[in-house]
Amino acid sequence: MKKIILSLALLAAMSVTFVACDSKETSDSGTTEETAGLADGTMNVDLAASNVNWEGTMVGMYSHSGDVKLTDGSVVVTDGKIAGGNFTVDLNTINPTDENYDAAKEQTPAKLVGHLSSDDFFAVEKHPMATFEITGSDGSTVMGNLTVRGKTNPEEVKNVEIVEADGKVTMTGDLTFDRTKYDVSFKHPMQDMVVSNDVAMKLKLVANK
Description:
By secondary structure, the chain is mainly beta. The protein has one helix and twelve strands, in the order βββββββαβββββ.
C-alpha cells in the first residue's frame, strides 16, 4: 500500500487538485517501498465509493450531520501531481445521519431536510448542485472555488491526504465554509438559538488508477 502525504504543491486544480510528494513506507515483510508520484492521466471518481459528509451546529446546543452524494468527478494528474479535475454535489440528496431529533416537538430528519432545501438555506429547487474547482495548492492545503446557491468564493481544502491501495487512489480532506458568503443567511427567530455560520465538510474521493 502506498500512502502519499501531500507536501509541496498538493492538488493543483481539481474540484480537488492535489500534489503528492515522495514518501517511504515499510511493508509487512520489513522491506521499504519507494512511493513515486501518481501516474499521469485522468482518473474518474468512483461515485459509489466516494462521499461528502457535512455538519452544521446550533451554537451551544446541538449539531446535525449527514452526507450528500456526488454526481460526477475526475482528477487530472500531470508530472506525478494532481493538476486538474472537479466534482459536483447533488443537494437533492441531503441525508441526515445524526440522532438529535424529537418527534414530539416536530423535530424530524425530514423536516430538517425540508428546511435546508428551502430558500432559508440552500434553495435547492433553484440551485440543486454545488461544485468545487481547484486553483492551486500549498503543502497539504488545496485552494479552489466553491459554488453554492449560484455564488462562487475561494475556499481551502485542508489536511489533504492521498492513499494508493488495491488499484484505487483515495483522497481525503476537510473543507469548512461560511454559509453567509453564499446567501445562506438564515437566523433563528429565538435570539438564544444561534445557528453557526460555519458548515464543515469531510471529503473522500476514491478514483480508479
